[in-house]
Design goal:
Strand order of the largest sheet: 1-2-3
Distance between the termini: 38 Å
CATH class of the largest domain: Alpha Beta
Number of strands: 6
Helix content: 40-55%
Radius of gyration: 19 Å
Oligomer: single chain
CATH architecture of the largest domain: 2-Layer Sandwich
Number of helices: 5
Length: 202
């Protein structure tokens, strides 16, 4: 998905969620790695919108794999759409113009991650810092934050849509329908909507 379009969807999510827009922050990360074998990542992630703290613990073949799996394992029950996305690219580049010493080993690095949804649409997320590991984790977190907010916004709109329909507000029904049509470009929310309907029936 082109950056401008992705940015417009972020603005829509912010408009819909207001103060409920998730700002995920990762705290101290503990990494244990057997080179070329298994990597374990443990950290605490805070949702600044709710104040909720969550422990992320994952294992994989590298930091990215371990963190991504740990996050999805922790949050897929709350946000099932996370199970529909996958990484398609991962790039690291040195920004040598930022170096402060001769060797250049303190240069900032830029990490770029591509994520694809179940419909084959592509999303890109980037972050730069002087720690490749930090930027790698933060970049993945930015991508996952995007899809968490997308599902929150879609569910919010779906509930507003049902309320407007029940009240016979055709103008609002049309408005919410058009907004939901934009968010479904991100991924599928069928499982999330089915769950909310079951909760309502109970």
């Amino acid at each position: 998905m082109e950056g401008t379009q992705q940015g417009e969807i972020v603005q829509l999510m912010r408009d819909v969620l207001g103060e409920g827009y998730a700002h995920l922050r990762v705290h101290r990360v503990v990494i244990e790695e057997e080179l070329e074998q298994t990597t374990s990542v443990t950290c605490e992630v805070t949702d600044e919108a709710t104040g909720e703290n969550s422990i992320i613990a994952g294992k994989g073949v590298g930091v990215i794999d371990a963190f991504f799996k740990g996050f999805v394992d922790r949050f897929a029950n709350d946000y099932p759409s996370l199970k529909t996305i996958r990484l398609t690219s991962f790039q690291v580049g040195a920004k040598l113009e930022t170096k402060s010493d001769y060797a250049g080993t303190d240069s900032a690095g830029e990490v770029s991650v591509g994520i694809m949804n179940s419909a084959g649409k592509f999303f890109r997320f980037t972050h730069s810092s002087r720690s490749v590991i930090a930027s790698s984790i933060i970049t993945i977190l930015l991508g996952l934050e995007y899809f968490v907010n997308s599902e929150r916004a879609y569910v919010t709109l779906h509930q507003a849509f049902k309320d407007a329909k029940a009240r016979g507000r055709d103008d609002l029904v049309q408005h919410y329908t058009s907004q939901m049509a934009i968010l479904v470009r991100n991924t599928s929310y069928s499982e999330a909507i089915e769950r909310t309907q079951n909760d309502t029936e109970v």
